[in-house]
Amino acid sequence: DQQVKQNSPSLSVQEGRISILNCDYTNSMFDYFLWYKKYPAEGPTFLISISSIKDKNEDGRFTVFLNKSAKHLSLHIVPSQPGDSAVYFCAAPTGSRLTFGEGTQLTVNP
Amino acid sequence: DSGVTQTPKHLITATGQRVTLRCSPRSGDLSVYWYQQSLDQGLQFLIQYYNGEERAKGNILERFSAQQFPDLHSELNLSSLELGDSALYFCASSVGQGTYGYTFGSGTRLTVV
After folding, report:
1. Which candidate among A6, A49, A75, B65 keeps its CA 20 to 30 Å from the CA of A37?
2. Cβ separation of B40 and A98 shorter than 8 Å?
């Protein structure tokens, strides 16, 4: 049972444009969500999070939106930079464990 | 450098063999978590230790076991290896038992041939 799903394995955007990465979840008990970024040969690093009491959280170029009724969240990166090219995972905690989506490979072209 | 050290970085072994993956948590962190990432999959939670004791278990196979030692480093033992065990194995650590401050190591890539 895949409780957190990222349906787009890859996304390619031009430098300076907006990148939108999507994530859907099925477990209505999830009340907190995180996005991680992963470069090759490195572990995932925390990027941004959102609590279910909010519908938006912003940190610099990164904004996460949460639509609880649709059980959907998205990560917006504006403007996108070549250094943002990485795999992005959304995740939801249950106790001390994280449930991850499959990841989306973002490529930002110069 | 995240402060979480995993060794070895790469491991190639044959089916039926046994391997041990090692993780040293970030200084001050008491919890260690193990995750498995198979090809094109998200990270799957395997097991958590807190200050030497097992605290949570995910879909970890019976052929796999782990422990956390008094110096807080952890080892993940994989035995009777199968081709399907080929994956990236990540360790993470945190101060407490929640997901706040989770820090991942760079992983061990296991290839079973």
Report:
1. B65
2. no
Question: pLDDT digit string (tens) for B28-84?
Answer: 999 999 999 998 788 999 999 999 999 999 989 999 999 999 999 999 999 999 999
Tokens 């065990």 correspond to what residue? B85
Contacts of B107 in chain A (CB under 8 A): 42-43
| Beta strands, E only, chain B | 5-7, 10-13, 19-24, 31-37, 44-50, 53-57, 64-68, 74-78, 87-94, 103-104, 108-112
Q: Which residue of B has its CA nearest to A5?
A: B42
Residue type, A37: K
Q: Which residues contact B16 (CB under 8 A, 6 or more apart)?
A: B80, B81
Q: Which residues of A touch B90 (CB under 8 A)?
A: 43-44
Query: Count of H helices and E strands in chain A?
Result: 0, 11
> Does residue A79 have a cis peptide bond before it, meaning omega lies within 30 degrees of 0?
yes
- Are A22 and A101 contacting, i.e. CB atoms less than 8 angstroms apart? no
Place of tokens 């995910």: B58
CB B6 within 8 A of CB B71: no
